[in-house]
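Data availability (excerpt). The following record was deposited with the supplementary files.
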Amino acid sequence: MHTKAVVKERFSLKEALCNEVRSKKAKFGFGGFGEATYYRTYSRIKPDGTQEHWADTVIRVINGVMSVRKSHYILNRLAWDETKWQQYAKRLANAMFDMKWLPPGRGLWVMGTEYVYERGGAALNNCGAVDTSDLSLAADWTMDMLMCGVGVGFNTVWKGENVSMPDKARAVPYVIPDSREGWVASVRLLIDSYTQRGAWFKFDYSKIRPEGSPIGGFGGTASGPAPLIELHERIESYLDSYCEGEIDQTRCVADVMNAIGACVVAGNVRRSAEISLGSVDDDTFLELKDYVKNPERAEIGWMSNNTVVLEKTEDFEKLPMIAKHIRNNGEPGLMNLINIQKYARYGEKSEDHAWLANPCSEIPLESFELCNLAEVFPARCVEEDEFYEALEFATFYASTVALLPTHRPETNAIVVRNRRIGVSLSGVADMLDAYGATDLTRRLRRGYKLVREVNRTLAAEAGVPASVRVTTVKPSGTISQLVGVSSGMHFPTFQYAIRRMRVGNTSRICEVLKSAGIPHEDDQYSANTTVFEFPIDQGKTRKATSVSAWEQFSFLAMLQREWSDNMVSCTIYFDPKTEAAQIEHMLALFAPIIKSVSMLPHSDTGAYAQMPYEGISKEEYESRLAKMPAIDWSEFAGSDGIESRFCTNDSCDLEG
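Predicted structure:
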């Protein structure tokens, strides 16, 4: 037993089972692009110093999730049948290897590591949310979770009362510890000096490791103190402006939270993702991304998607105004809180106390709540029964992660009550075009029933409540690229395309791709970076431009009715010439029967050199494919995984 760890017991697949997994050949999607994405992003250095290949990653993840469940059982004196679970783990591993189901990207990267065993489950969760009634606590929690890789949603309800300018002439020295906790604490102390009449601190950054130093626990390299210094300066200026009456409380909350996200991105720790939730009656909120009116927000405003919350029936009378904003700049998104709190799947009454949402709006959340996801890929399931088995395995993974406490007591208090999970599907548009709406509906209904049954059985066995919600459709990011399917419920933008991958010139993967002869050129936007090009074929699924916004809305409503008891992450794409005038009608008809949606125009404008995703003709695809060399990954070594820093397509394309 590992007495100091959160996960005190360990599970290890028997060596014969590991060898069986290692004997298989991985089949990544999109030709070499899916495999290169895996090695760039998720392949880690093993304890013996060698590099993970796909089988090694699968074994690490399976050992990790089984260790979490085993530890829970043993610590709670529940029966643990090692033989039974070894056989189950074998099936779990084989299905994961074949990519019939997968954990989210963060699960691929960190599950089964000492970081999780020692510190708990925060880094395994996709998303969280926080209420900003207490601004300093909300900022503290947000920065902490963003630095753990969790996307965070926040509202703008802070009332801004009892705020006063601190006495800056009497500064108290404070040496910031060189840790995640140290950075987070400094932000809370700074805000408390305004909101709690706390001391004014003169921060000493001398203990923070210099730029380029390795980060031990979570991996990556340090940014040095510069991003934190800039964050402190920004927060001070925002709160000064609020005290002087130059901005209101909505603007102050959004600025503080967006600046925190920008700091985490710049800090090289994790990619940040945020959503800001506001009132349909709040003009300040609706104008947060009006950079003509608020040009100074351009440097931080991009950090969050902005969504209005429809809380009462009268709010729906504002849909014409919302439609006008959407036509102008593609925001705000909409969240129907009435349906969230009243229904599981639409029409199925089941109370939910959530009033917030995660950045991609597939999960409703209470304040301080986290949710972990897992994903199923029907395209990899040859027989229909394999699809249902994959749903079982994804439910097992997510339900098990929900057993693991985090380092935040306020979060654990919510998670132990809700145990919220999200079993998601990717390639749903592929399913629609392959099976038709009638057969897809049948499969979704049967699949939902199965997920519910598996979750209830696992919860009863573990002695915990069943999850308050269990299914979703997330947008899927790099995970769908590994498999080679369309993202979430979205239709592909192109059938044939170039996918571009940016990697640093000093990275090991850059050497491998150049040596293999993958087409590449210098990055026109970032120094010391190379852009590699891969041709991909999205298959026979209809292109997004050929699917009307009306059909997309109908598809969203069907998924909310038949599959997702959380929400469905959906960006509806509309033709700005023929459909923009119909947005109000679409919202009026569909907003009352869904839980969330965002909208963006199809556009040929704004194209730029070296786009991450660029459409090409079938002829160019075939020409490029014929010239693509094979990549030898056997000598790849010395990489602990990296991540794309920003979204790589128009939808909310977060890590896994």
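Summary of structural features: Residues 373 and 492 are 22 Å apart (CA to CA).
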